[in-house]
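Researcher: Quick test of sequence recovery. Tokens follow.
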């Protein structure tokens, strides 16, 4: 966001999601004096080929903290388990309270067109939590807060119906972003045939979105109400 003093909060399903799909613009916003907060709903601790979920969670938390530090963001982890995140009222109210504490000027999160259960649930949780946060009588007694803007990020696991509408240049922060995502073991790859080439994909995607928008590197976002709207090519969020 152009200028300083704004609060930007991003909600991701697992440690690593936000860094890949929002890290470049997050670094740019933080460098301009804005507060950027990464809220990870789970650590993403399951699925390591050799580590237990407990050990991998320890590693993921260390990776997430270091990656956030490099990007200039704050690190927060909610108390939910990877693969077990429920789209329940209890979770929505917990996120509602986070929104009221942080009072964000903008929120970024997953798009709904996902085949990943946790990603889809985060979309639903955040949408409802924003609604609850704006009204008295929900959640704790924290002061209500209305979120001015909600953006959805581009993720390879959330592709259905995603149409890039808002392109944001982060060319000056590309190298920092690359260094930050390479902190994560799953991004670097483990040398297994099943490894997804995260680093290659997201670096290439940043270049493609940059070309489309007339920048060197960009990240793309959308609003849910953006169907049929024209594309915005921005150096800064308004």
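Model:
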């Amino acid at each position: 966001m152009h200028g300083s003093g704004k609060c930007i909060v991003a909600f991701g399903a697992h440690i690593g999601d936000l860094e890949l799909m929002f890290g470049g613009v997050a670094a740019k916003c933080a460098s301009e004096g804005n507060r950027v907060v990464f809220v990870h709903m789970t650590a993403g601790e399951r699925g390591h080929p050799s580590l237990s979920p407990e050990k991998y969670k320890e590693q993921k938390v260390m990776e997430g903290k270091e990656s956030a530090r490099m990007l200039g963001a704050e690190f927060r982890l909610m108390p939910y388990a990877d693969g077990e995140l429920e789209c329940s009222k209890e979770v929505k109210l917990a996120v509602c309270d986070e929104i009221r504490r942080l009072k964000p000027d903008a929120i970024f999160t997953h798009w709904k067109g996902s085949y990943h259960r946790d990603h889809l649930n985060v979309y639903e949780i955040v949408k409802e939590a924003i609604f609850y946060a704006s009204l008295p009588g929900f959640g704790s007694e924290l002061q209500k807060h209305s979120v001015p803007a909600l953006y959805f990020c581009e993720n390879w696991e959330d592709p259905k119906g995603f149409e890039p509408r808002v392109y944001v240049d982060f060319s000056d922060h590309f190298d920092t972003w690359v260094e930050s995502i390479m902190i994560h073991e799953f991004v670097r790859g483990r040398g297994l045939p099943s490894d997804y080439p995260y680093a290659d994909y997201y670096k290439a995607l940043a270049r493609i979105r940059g070309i489309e928008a007339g920048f060197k590197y960009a990240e793309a976002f959308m609003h849910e109400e953006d169907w049929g709207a024209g594309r915005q090519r921005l150096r800064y969020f308004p």
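The helical segments are 17-31, 53-71, 89-102, 117-133, 174-181, 185-188, 198-213.
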